[in-house]
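Write out the 3D structure for:
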Amino acid sequence: MSIIRDKIISLQDYLNDRIVGQQELVKKLMITLLADGHALLEGAPGLAKTKAIKTLSECIQAQYNRIQFTPDLLPSDITGSDIYVAEKSEFEFRKGPIFANLVLADEINRAPAKVQSALLEAMAERQVSVGGKQYILPELFMVLATQNPIEQEGTYNLPEAQLDRFLMYIKIDQPDAETEHKILKIVREEQQNEYNKTDKRVAKEINKINIQDVIEARKTVLSIYMNENLENYLVQLIMATRHPEKYDSSLREKILYGASPRATIALDKCAKINAWLKGRDFVIPEDIHDIVYDVLRHRIILSFEAQAEGLRSDDVISSILKMVPLP
């Protein structure tokens, strides 16, 4: 356990070193990777979302593709399509950009529903269907989708079924002044190294870990122990999103739909990985609290009245954490 964990922690430290001021983003990307899930990122442009997944793919020697979502995008632009080959007098399937280990779906909410549904099949079934045939995606397959919270013109809301397929919904804030100075310094160094061709650090770090190491780590985290009382606490948090009137009658009118069983599974898995990354082989309440907002915020659907009041899913989660007693 210690050898594979040391490799993963080394990777996490390297990412923190290269993506300054985004420790929470890096940690949650690592959790998503080890949980074999997908993440939805929301943040303003220029917050290293693209750099984060691209650097991660380089470090684990994985194939990376970026898809820029636009209103005129077609499902075949993602999945690929059958192309007629005259020399063979037959159709041949040409794979689309979804056939990669790490896929950045940039501004996913700019694509119409039929394109989003093609991505949903890939995320849920780990395959794509073209011309009545199914094509299997790589064993290590992770989608990192982004949304720009600033500009909403010409966007399409993601359906709840697709939102639920994301393990985490991660929100990113702007860096502070000290972090901004560090970013400037790193960018200047990278530009200088690129011109001089002297940056050997990346190559050295990439060779430390590969896809098989990630798969091995996924198996290891399954052995992390969760106490039965803590497991009951986790389930009660989910139940509180569905039946909040048991704790606070005023919340009943604010929650239209609570979290699905998929949320319970995600919360359990992410809490165990969080404990493992911190060097423990057992889960404590802090591990659940560290990731509960990212796991639940997109799975709680608020009523129209709640939205009119300016209430957010995060506010509801905070209330639930206060109401449900710790074990």
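Residues 199-207 have pLDDT under 50 and may be disordered.
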